[in-house]
Amino acid sequence: MKVERLHQVSERSSKDIFGMPIIGFLFKNRYALLSYRLLALFLFLYALIYGFLHPSKEENIFTPAVFWSLFWPFFMITTLTTLGNVFCMICPLGFLGKNIQKIGLKLRIPKLLKNPYIGIIFSNILAYWFVLYTFPGLLRIPIVTALFFSVFLLLSLLFFFLFRGMAFCKYICPIGSVNSAFARAGFTWLSTYREECKFCRKPECALSCPYELNPSKFDERNSMANCTLCMECAHACPAVRFEIRGWGSSLVKKISKPLHWEVWVYILMVAVITFAMRFHHGLGRTQFAEYTPWVVAGKFLQDKLNIPDWIDMTGFMAMIIALCLVLLIVFLSVRLASSAGQLPMRKVFLEIGYAFAPLMIVGALAHVWEFFFLRYYSDFLNGLSQAFGLGFHIEPLARRGDPWLLVFNVFPPIAALWSIYILKKRVDLLNPARKNLFFLFSAMLPAAYLALWAFSFTAGLLFRSGHGH
To answer: What is d(CA 432, CA 131) in angstroms, rounded to the nearest whole number?
Structure first.
């Protein structure tokens, strides 16, 4: 009887996606998953090859469109805020890695490399965001895009062959840790039916996981850290479930082992993406742009050090100032909340930090959806037409300045208010001394985020360069 319970589920929850006839097939069937992964791998490799064969912008819009208009900004951001980490589910590198790892050396990764901050800081912030702000347009050159992703392809193949546990995805990938952290904002959750796991001494879900995770512990820990929804556990044991829950449900519950790197993902990404972009692009299009600190400092350094014009010191300074400002706000917030609540700063940092999850990932939907209509849609389809000789041309669905695009500005205030709501729930879990004062200090970053959005949005309407009063 006990053995039989390990291999069947008496009744699936009505919210279990695996129990839904059509949707369940799309998320669990091996052949369906294989088809997505093969398609993503084909697009990935074809875009790389096409980038090397057609290196200039004039002859190639396909390669940049695949990576910068489909994979990264649109597909990833949109799915993370809804279905969770399904981008990693079909990632070409992860797909190759799972198969290469089977024939690899299966070594344990050295402690020096066993650090998710490598991927967050070096592969993500320095290799991508620093380049994006300081050398604008560089990554949009097809040959540069091809070289950029070829480096990560070769690096991933080396790591997958040498090390076990999908080490590249966990520690080196520029979006691996980022996706894992922001997946908490979605409404899906992978776990197991506890009743079916009671007598399971060697959980097949854990033994089958190429990432060496244990899905039967996800609920207990309130954490799916590093899970890519590869569904190998679901293929190994029918007691695995993929459930629809409330948006960001894990963020309002106690987390048994909070992870520093998850909190730092939320803080660093809101700095280098949200604040820096508001500074550089949002306020940079206003009539008073030349008086902003990042423009003043950028021009000073540009002139003083004789830096050539193709290096954008204004963008660089916008990123640096955004980082410094956000880190200062977080430090003051944690320090003051710690004092008010009579709790250690480390505990306060970890507990309130999870409330910052929606700020970048939900707020970024404003940019992603606006640019879907302005560029992403037309760039990708025209790129496909060019790369495969289909002979059609698509015009953008909107033009910059179209009033109806303002509707997408609803996402940043939603992100800020959602963050404040999560913070309230997490403060209730902590139950600190002087709770109201503790909450007030803890909300400094969401409040600053909301204030920056309101200021840049208003300034953009009233003082846009060439159209202001």
So the answer is: 42
